[in-house]
Amino acid sequence: MVPYLLKRLISLLLSLLAASVVIFLVLQVVPGDPASYMLGMNAQPETVEALRQQMGLNEPLVWRYLTWIAGLAHGNFGISYTYKVPIGELIAQRLWVSLPLAIYALLLSTLIALPVGIISAAKRNSASDYGIMGATQLGIAVPNFWFAMLLVLFFSITLRWFSAGGFPGWNAGFFVALKALTLPAIALALPQASILARVMRSSLLDTLSEDYIRTARAKGLTRGQTLVRHAVRNAMIPVLTIIGLQFSFLLAGAIIIENVFYLPGLGRLVFQGITQRDLIVVQSVVMLLVFAVIVITFLVDLAYALVDPRLRSRA
Amino acid sequence: MSVGFLPERKRGLWAAAFQSKSFALGFAVTAIFILAALLSFVWTPYDATALSVAEKLKGPSTVHWFGTDHFGRDIFSMIMVGARTSIAVAFVAVGIGMAAGVPLGLWAAAKQGSLVDEVIMRANDLVFAFPALLIAILITAVFGPSAINAIIAIGIFNIPVFARLARGAALTLWTREYIFAARVAGKGALRISAEHILPNILNLLIVQGTIQFSLGILADAALSYVGLGAQPPTPSWGRMLSDAQTMISLAPHMALFPGAAIVLTVLGLNLMGDGLRDIFDPKLQRSRT
């Protein structure tokens, strides 16, 4: 286990390094000078030059990369060009919207998908199986932002149960804030739940055809007992992998959904960064999200190896 | 379906394909949208970019089948032209993914365990860590938003998908006897990959191609919804939806029709993919039914 862990850890660090280089280099190609952009059209060349100096833009490329990385390691992302505040603070504020949203959506998706997938597999080829599979086909095909708009149309405009957007902040009370995140979380969760339900179903069907299931039935367990004690538990391994991977998709998907509901999360921050050419903000948020994807994939792999020792020797 | 599969095969793949209900349905739906996109080059009920303030926000009627938007543009015509953009973006993005990903995957498989294999697969992992949306954000932050940049972003996202698929499928083929025979006959890795491996994984690639096509339609819709795709005045389904959002209480039809167009296209492609998979892999189908 230790050599495996070490090997995976090194490859994790290399991936993070490579990702950071890619992101850094891509944003160096951008035309235009952030310093003159910050100071506006009428700035004196000397002022621009002074600001360039202060922002470290005159340093060599490699040095600027190293400063950025060293900063990241200390949680210091640099100063936003437009907000003029540390990006770390901006991201921390926004993360308090995006992260709970992603977790909320993941919970919803899991709570819907697992029972639905299990029912579908247990009642294979029944009317409910066909109904569920049809519904998941539809769920995969629906763009989540369009589904979000339909939710707003129905629950906010017609029924007036939820507000159509905005976020009161966690200080307004836990349930008030949670309510504001409910429609966005449902919109995010639906396509993921459809995928997850299909994975759950096919994984359970695979497990149900195993010999030990027949043995369990032969020794007198009922269908339900076999399902709960043997089948579902073994079928969960691929499902857990998908859940892990979905979390990073939810975090990235939140970028779009936040725009539908005007939520002040990372997604809004990125788009404001793009329109205001505040590229250091874009760079930092993208790095953070890619970092999350890489680390989560690593953790899922690790969990997999813990459950299934065969993978350790193969890797 | 599993009974009598072989005689159907003799009648040709197409005949077999249309025996599959999901393929036939998916094909029909997809064909409608592709035809609508092609038709839009020569005819649309109205000019999709013509503004007409007097006609704005009209609901569906016999005059404007899907109603008009806040500038009085005919939504039916916009959806037809929008189909062109969406389909073109997704199709070319699949092309990029296949053209770059498949050779890389085959190369990695041919040199399994070598440095080349390791480098290709790690590079794939790296690209995989960037969701399509983040690639698009990076690209647009640098080059500005456009349909071309949306194609590039979705295309880059497709590369590792095809590379992994091609490598995985090719690896199992490399252990087959007929490949061994070809090696004994003196064929090099390149020729074996092109002449023996590629034809045998084509089925898989086509199925995955349909799936990536549908994902591409969704990704393009999302990108143009947030303003990172095709720019005005070119109609695109995603931007029609972002326009509709501000009008949703006044004119819900503005949101319903473009959204339904996206759902139907994606659904059609997915059904086609499912159907094709059943046809190409009868063993899998037997275990499914």
Question: How would you characterize this protein structure?
Answer:
The complex is a heterodimer of chains A (about 325) and B (about 290). In chain A, about 80% of the residues lie in helices and about 0% in strands. Chain A has 13 helices and no strands. The mean pLDDT of chain A is about 85. Chain B is an all-alpha fold and about 290 residues long. Chain B contains 12 helices and no strands. Chain B has helices at about 5-10, 15-20, 20-40, 75-110, 115-130, 130-145, 145-175, 175-185, 190-225, 235-245, 255-280, 280-289. Chain B is elongated. Classes of the chains: A mainly alpha (about 325), B mainly alpha (about 290).
Helix amount of chain A: over 70%
Terminal-residue CA separation of chain A:
11 Å
Q: Which pair of chains has the greatest number of interface residues, and how are they split between the two chains?
A: A-B, 47 and 38 residues
* Structural classification of chain B: mainly alpha
Structural class of chain A: mainly alpha
Shape of chain B: elongated
Q: Helical element count of chain B?
A: 12
Uncertain segments of chain A are none
Distance between the termini of chain B: 10 Å
- If helices are DSSP runs of H or I spanning 4 or more residues, what is the number of helices of chain A? 13
| Proportion in β-strands of chain A | under 5%
Mean pLDDT of chain B: 84
Describe the sheet with the most strands of chain A: none
Radius of gyration of chain B in whole Å, from Cα?
22 Å
The assembly state of the depicted protein chains is: heterodimer
Q: Rounded to an integer, what's the Rg of chain A over CA atoms?
A: 24 Å
How many β strands of chain B by DSSP?
0
Give the SSE order of chain A as H and E letters. HHHHHHHHHHHHH
Can you summarize the main beta sheet of chain B? none
Series of secondary-structure elements of chain B, N-terminal to C-terminal: HHHHHHHHHHHH
